[in-house]
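Task: sequence in, structure out. Protein: Ig-like domain-containing protein.
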Amino acid sequence: VMETEGSSPLGRSMNLKEPPSFQVKGAPCDQAVIEGEDVVMTAKFRGQPKPMVNWLKDNVMVKTVGRFVVHETENATSELRINAAQKSDGGIYVCKIINEYGTKQAECRLKVKGESKIRIKEISKLCLI
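Result:
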């Protein structure tokens, strides 16, 4: 939606008004990681005025303390980083973008698997013939 202000063609200023939207379809995407690995969920968005970004896990606002960090760049990209993921971090994450012209949200499922354990069997007896 474009709106113009002013009365003369030379004196008009244009304000672009655009509801929020994600620039990459399906972003952020589902992920599966091993416990202890870092996770980064990225959402690239647009809207005018610039949308406010909220990250939620299982419908609760993510608190950006400790291992959880949210970083927003000037080129309308928001990243949720989870350092050293734990099994309890698994769940449904939502990136919600809001401005005065609307709201959009994208969902990501995170699965955190237990540490891989490699089992090595010792050879206890060696038979020589």
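The CA atoms of residues 59 and 128 lie 64 Å apart.
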